[in-house]
Amino acid sequence: MKLYENEISSATSRVRIALALKGVEVEAHRISILGVDAQNRQADYLKLNPQGLVPALVTDGGQLITQSLAIIEYLNELYPEPPLLPLNLESRALARSVALAIASEIHALLPPRIASYLSTTHAINSDGVAEWSRHWIGEGMAAVEQLITNRRTGAFIAGDHPSVADIFLFPQAISAARNGFDLAQWANIAEIMQNLRAIPAFENNAPAARK
C-alpha cells in the first residue's frame, strides 16, 4: 500500500496512528501542502486525488481511498486486530460520533486552504485567521468534552482500549494546545490525552508543528 501524507497534517496523523496500532507498514510519499507551489494542488496529485487532500491511500489492489475515517475503517476491516471500534453498539456509535465531530465540525474549518481563502478572498489578516481558528477549536472541543462527559467507561473515550475516537482526538487536542488552549479546562480530554501519550503509536505519530 502507498500512503500520500504530510507530517503537519492532523488527518495524516490519524492514519499513521491507526497503522502503528495495527503494526502495518506502508510505502510513504510526502506531499507538500503549504505555499503556492504545494504539491497537493498540482496536476499530478490532483489526477490521483481530485480533492487535493492528504492523506490518500492506494491499496495493494491499486484502489484509491480518501478521507481519514474511510481509510482507518478500511484498515480496521483488513487487519481486525486490535479492533479500533468497540464491540458494544452504543460505544461504537459514540466513537464514530466523536470522530465525526472532530473531522466535520472542527478540522474541516482549519486546513491551509481555508486560511488561504479567508486571507486572499476576504482580506482577513493573519490575526483574523488565527482568531477564526481559535473560535472553532474552542467551540468544537467544548462540545466534544460534553459528548463524552458521563459516557466514558474506561481510560479512553469508549472503553479501556483506544478507538477511532481517540485517534481523532489526539492530533486535534495537540492542535488546540498549539493554538493556546489549556487542555485542563476539559477534564476528560486532558485525562485521555495523558493516557494516549503513554502509547508509542500515538506519541510517535503526532502531527509536526508548522514551520
Write the layout of secondary structure elements.
Elements: E1 2-5, H1 10-22, E2 27-30, H2 43-48, E3 56-58, E4 64-66, H3 68-78, H4 89-105, H5 112-121, H6 126-148, H7 164-178, H8 187-197, H9 200-203
Parallel strand pairs: 1-2
Antiparallel strand pairs: 1-3, 3-4
Describe it.
- The chain has 211 residues and is an alpha+beta fold.
- It has two domains: 2-78, 3-Layer(aba) Sandwich (Glutaredoxin), CATH 3.40.30; 89-203, Glutathione S-transferase Yfyf (Class Pi), Chain A, domain 2 (Up-down Bundle).
- 52% of the residues lie in helices and 7% in strands.
- Strand 1 (2-5), helix 1 and strand 2 form a beta-alpha-beta unit.
- Helix 1 (10-22) runs parallel beside helix 3 (68-78), helix 4 (89-105) runs antiparallel to helix 6 (126-148) and helix 4 packs parallel to helix 7 (164-178).
- It starts with a strand and ends in an 8-residue tail after the last helix.
- The model has no long low-confidence stretch (mean pLDDT 95).
Main sheet record: 4 strands, mixed
Strand order of the largest sheet: 2-1-3-4
User: What is the chain-wise order of helices and strands?
Assistant: EHEHEEHHHHHHH
Helix content: 40-55%
Count of domains:
2
The low-confidence parts are: none
Work out the helix count: 9
Structural class: alpha+beta
What portion of residues belong to β-strands? 5-15%
Arithmetic mean of pLDDT: 95
Q: What's the β-strand tally?
A: 4
Distance between the termini: 29 Å
Approximate shape = globular
CATH architectural arrangement of the largest domain:
Up-down Bundle
- Kindly provide the name of the CATH class of the largest domain: Mainly Alpha
Rg, Cα atoms, Å: 17 Å
Q: Could you name the CATH topology of the largest domain? A: Glutathione S-transferase Yfyf (Class Pi), Chain A, domain 2
